[in-house]
Amino acid sequence: MNEITNRLKAIRNAIKDAAQSAGRNPDEILLVGVSKRQSAAKAMAAVHAGVTILGENYIQEAVEKIETLKDLEASWHFIGHLQTNKARFAVQHFDLIHTVDSIKLAREIDKQAQKIKKIQKILIQINISQESSKSGARADDALALVRGVSLLKNVAITGLMGMPPFFDDPEQARPFFRELAQIRSKIEDAKIPNVLMDHLSMGMSGDFKAAIEEGSTMVRIGTAIFGARS
Ligand SMILES: *Cc1c(COP(=O)(O)O)cnc(C)c1O
């Protein structure tokens, strides 16, 4: 588990370097430790080493892990594709849902949040990869979707999330990160009531430095902290 501490130290340094090279304050960038398909013991080790946010992709696995680790002081973020029929569990267990990409899903989250008197924080996921198989709202539909979701009383939009296609060379991901940052600016300029554009969730183990240089405020890092997934 010492390995996790060492890897984290290296990642924190890399985040700092990337922020400074872009003239940004490193404190603006939150680290989400992606614990999907990693044991509860490893997730716990990461929190003990200073990780404050854990990211999970699969509801059933996540709910079990969150139960196991219920005494742990950590914030849980849902970063996987969310099916409407699982929205209830996401609302019960997660502080932030990164992956809202349709009005239908947002309405279900709103309904479930209302039941437990919660304002559910969410990010709108944009399909910046231009691969039709990937989740996320179309960039052209982003503003209209944000306007629609903004009317829901028990949901609060706090930013955007996106994933570029996979590249070996992170430089190739950079234009996709830049595009997401531009969409964020456009939405910010629209000054929609009940909508914050505080967060840009972008960047993973292989490309977080480029993402930070392009404005990321939340990097979602799994293998670079935990090693290969089971
Ligand atoms: C798995 C996953 C990550 C973490 O990926 P790594 O390459 O292991 O850092 C980040 N974001 C999402 C949405 C994921 O599914």
Automatic annotation (TrEMBL):
Gene3D superfamilies, per the entry: Alanine racemase
GO molecular function annotation: pyridoxal phosphate binding
Domain Alanine racemase N-terminal: from-to ranges: 8-229
SUPFAM superfamilies attached to this UniProt entry: PLP-binding barrel
N6-(pyridoxal phosphate)lysine: residues bearing it: K36
HAMAP family (alphabetical): PLP_homeostasis
Annotated function: Pyridoxal 5'-phosphate (PLP)-binding protein, which is involved in PLP homeostasis.
Protein family membership: Belongs to the pyridoxal phosphate-binding protein YggS/PROSC family.
Name of protein: Pyridoxal phosphate homeostasis protein
